[in-house]
Amino acid sequence: MKTCYVLFLVVSIMAMSACKQKNTVNYPVAKKVDTVDTYFGTKIADPYRWMENDTSAETAAWVSEENAATKEYLSKIPFREQMKERLTKIWNYPRFGVPFKEGPYYFFFKNDGLQNQSVFYVRKGIDGEPKVLLDPNKLSEDGTIALAGTQVSHDGRYLAYSIAKSGSDWNEVHVMEIGSGKLLPDTLRWVKFSGMSWQDDGFYYSRYDAPKKGMELSKKNEFQKVYYHTVGTLQNDDKLVYQNLKFPQRNYGAAVTEDQRFLILYESESTYGTALYYRDLAKPAMPFKQLVEGFDNEYGVVDNIGDKFLVVTNNKAPKKKLILMDPANPEPRKWKTIIPERDDVLESVNLAGGYLVSEYMQNAASKAFIYNLDGKFLHEMSLPGIGTLAGFSGKKGENVAFYGYTSFTFPNTIFKYDVAQNKSDIYNRPEIDFNPELYEVKQMFYLGRDKTTIPMFIVHKKGLVLNGTNPAMLYGYGGFNVSLTPSFSLSRLLFLENGGVYAVANLRGGGEYGEDWHKAGTKDRKQNVFDDFIAAAEYLIAEKYTSPQHLAIMGGSNGGLLVGACMTQRPELFKVAIPQVGVMDMLRYHKFTIGWAWASDYGTSETKEGFDYLVKYSPLHNLKDSVQYPATLAFTADHDDRVVPAHTFKFMATLQAKQKGDNPALVRIETKAGHGAGKPTAKQIDETTDLWSFVFYNLGMAYK
Question: How far is CA 232 from CA 176, 184, 249, in A?
Fold first, then answer.
């Protein structure tokens, strides 16, 4: 026993010593050009503008050299391969999605463990033998073709499914005959930001005109149109259902009610706010009729009750309510409130078994309540604890429903729900190499810079000593009305197992407390989001969970912007920064793909007011010479056509040129991948290994 202890001690000391050894980086030289833009009299240099051309040979060469430098750095981390082995082991367990029903069939996704993509299964009846309906792993050898969406026809005869290649937002739609498993010749291209909604033997979908060759991943997306496709026909024969040539920067989506009587058309010009139209499909000659106009509020049609629509809206209800709208008299004064606004945020309403199943968010965690169709409260659903209810699936006339539930220490579990009896039974519980009893989850409330109370979840091993030396990872998002609720993460386990403290801050800009909370972190108030995140870090330090030398921060997309802004505003507060697919150039973000749609949160540099506040926090434009910034590993991908990789390219080239001291400034550029959705398991494990090995190494952690 003593010999084993001594051996363990020696190995640990060696590992810690290895972490302290200097791992230097030779950065590629990025040329600078004399590009200068003038914004309302202010000149702004953009020396790496050439990197916006993501298909050029010189950009490709720079990407190759950057990846080589990052790979060389990471390869010198002594415990990297051990971490990958552990990740692969804990990743390897069966995972199920929430079942749903169409016609006589039930459908669900399952991943055996290390499959690159989850497989789509069908079973006839609730207890039928499961059969593989569609295996996306057979669509490509490396798993980089993923299912982006599935929609089964109401009678269960057809499956329409969309695929995404290499992580791009561009989708192709195909059709399968479910009974025979036969793939039909239907192929629809240039589909993006679209669902598929069936009516009879066809479906509605949205697409754009084909972009110019070479501009597929960067060209601004404009003039989205709605079409109807009949099974067995060519895309060129699809019927144009709706277009608006007056407003190129508006998006349109169509959805059919469950009884196939009404077609609902949603119109938006940004990520917030919808106008609503409808058409009675029993009257083919009827044009669309507008139900609500403008983009000041949000509306979501749950379904129809006879001739009227159940609609969730935040019109005069920042935390949302459910109303009944008569399309013949849609003006707000004639709405009937079914479920009034309450203190918690109404996230969704589902019709199941003749009841209204309403999901709420209370302090960033799920609650669910059952009402009758008149809005009379019946009872609360019993959930396992503080966590997240996700993927509720039920039918208006069927008593059996399913839902998923997860929390920080509770792997996603599928429950079968008897709506009439309000009774949940575990339908599928994952078996995983993880003991939740070793960990504790706390929800704390701290004060922001302006004394606003902000919630934060903190997860760590039981028995943690608050001495200020614990390694900690602070995660945030803070935008677009997105809420960060408790969820289980395989990649997080590696950090927690080795004594890490994981914290999630529910910042303004998100949707945790309704629309007022969201708007408090938008446009000229976006600095509130960064202040909230910085205050979260200061709280963790003041309460001795950690210290600046042991604190890392991470966020993706808008969260990547968050990390970029905070590391430039308070570089001394963090030891490590992990910005993932971040929006880093706030003066030009709206010029690429769908970036223009983010203006409701950000504003744009096209106005003086917008320029004045954007330039103050834009990560790219606030990097300063001779400042020691945190050790940084940025992530992006060559097929990211949501937040184009030029954001990260320009930011990291600038950071490498200005960084003072030995903290590394590296970028990891994934190939054949996009903004994150559909990334194959193999790539996820590789990426997670690189992420945590970098974090461990630069926080001085020894991997055990």
Answer: 10, 7, 32
Domain boundary among 430, 456, 477: 430
Q: Quick check: is 435 in a domain?
A: no
**So what's the pLDDT on residue 7?**
33
Which helix (H) or strand (E) is 352 found in, with range?
A: strand 345-352
Domain-embedded: residue 316: no
- Is 358 marked active-site? no
Question: How is residue 286 written in tokens?
Answer: 């009827």
**CA 521/CA 343 separation, integer angstroms:** 20
Which pLDDT score, from 0 to 100, does residue 285 have?
87
Q: What is the CATH number of the domain that holds 552?
A: 3.40.50.1820
Judgement on whether residues 82 and 100 belong to the same structural domain of the protein: no
Catalytic residue chosen out of the listed positions 153, 557, 605, 693: 557
Residue segments in the chain with a per-residue pLDDT below the cut of 50: 1-20
User: In this structure, is residue 476 part of a structural domain?
Assistant: yes
In whole angstroms, what is the distance from residue 470 CA to residue 701 CA? 9
Q: Are residues 478 and 426 in the same domain?
A: no
- Give the model's pLDDT for residue 13: 33
Query: 111 and 236 share a domain?
Result: yes
557 & 648 share domain = yes
Q: Quick one: which of 535, 604, 525 has its CA closest to 566?
A: 535
Strands 551-556 and 576-580: parallel
Considering the candidates 229, 460, 518, 675, report the single residue annotated as catalytic: 675
163 and 212 assigned to the same domain: yes
Is beta strand 388-393 parallel, antiparallel or unpaired with respect to 345-352?
unpaired
Last residue of a domain, one of 369, 401, 430: 430
Q: Domain of residue 403: give its range.
A: 342-430
As for how many domains the chain has, the answer is 3
- Both 638 and 533 in one domain: the answer is yes
Find, among 107, 110, 176, 174, the residue nearest to 145 by Cα.
Answer: 174
Is 590 assigned a catalytic role? no
Residue type, 587: L
Residue 659 belongs to some domain of the structure: yes
Cβ neighbours of residue 643 under 8 Å, at least 6 residues apart? 557, 560, 581, 582, 583, 589, 595, 636, 675
Output the pLDDT for position 255.
98
Same domain for 24 and 140, yes or no, is no
CB distance 614 to 605 below 8 Å = yes
Burial 569-599 (b: 16+ CB within 10 A, else e): bbbebbbbbbbbbbbbbbbbbbbbbbbbbbb
Cα–Cα dist 215/208, whole Å: 13
Output phi, psi for 441, to 5 deg: -120, 130
- Lookup result for tokens 């209810």: 389
